[in-house]
């Protein structure tokens, strides 16, 4: 959730770090290594890393939030909403919207997204494949509002949409503008 917020907020220059797995009983051990004790090369299988490497930057949620950040680059933080102590939402101009919920109850609100009307794919819960969303969708009305639901007990209590995930449009690719 913190990484999603960092990538959605316009402040600073974020860095995404990836890491390796280790046995908690041996918390002094280093990264995966070769027989000569040199660090082993990262091994990748599709979008995941294997053989002891974690590669958090390849997790769908983080990878897609880097795309979110690139898509909203240069836009202002707008439409700030805070529900309870640990619930917030905001838009990045007319390009993106995010809602985060660390409260003990769900967000279930009509909120101003700042986005053009249409159906959007939530980049936290899914991807667009064959013009369909594999996760949650959000319908933005003509006035820019949408009914936003963010579960408090879900694995990822975050929802993020942007103009590149509008369903029914040709896919938009992200230019690598930022080093993240």
From TrEMBL:
It is an enzyme of class 3 (hydrolase). GO terms for molecular function: alpha-amylase activity; cation binding. It comes from the Eukaryota. Pfam families: Alpha-amylase_C (PF02806). One of its GO terms (biological process) is carbohydrate metabolic process. Residues 78-166 form the Alpha-amylase C-terminal domain. Its EC number is 3.2.1.1. It catalyses: Endohydrolysis of (1->4)-alpha-D-glucosidic linkages in polysaccharides containing three or more (1->4)-alpha-linked D-glucose units. Belongs to the glycosyl hydrolase 13 family. This is alpha-amylase.
């Amino acid at each position: 959730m913190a990484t999603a917020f960092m990538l959605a907020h316009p402040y600073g220059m974020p860095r995404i770090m990836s890491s390796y797995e280790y046995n908690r009983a041996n918390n002094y051990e280093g990264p995966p290594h070769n027989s000569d004790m040199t660090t082993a090369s990262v091994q990748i299988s599709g979008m995941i890393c294997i053989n002891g490497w974690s590669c958090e930057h390849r997790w769908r949620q983080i990878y897609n939030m880097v795309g979110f950040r690139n898509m909203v680059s240069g836009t202002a933080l707008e439409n700030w909403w805070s529900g309870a102590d640990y619930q917030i939402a905001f838009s990045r101009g007319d390009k993106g919207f995010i809602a985060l919920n660390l409260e003990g109850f769900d967000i279930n609100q009509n909120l101003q997204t700042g986005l053009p009307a249409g159906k959007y794919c939530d980049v936290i819960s899914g991807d667009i494949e064959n013009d369909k969303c594999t996760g949650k969708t959000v319908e933005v009305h003509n006035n820019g509002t949408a009914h936003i639901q963010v579960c408090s007990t879900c694995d990822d209590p975050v929802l993020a949409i942007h103009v590149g995930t509008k369903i029914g449009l040709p896919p938009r690719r992200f230019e690598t503008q930022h080093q993240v």
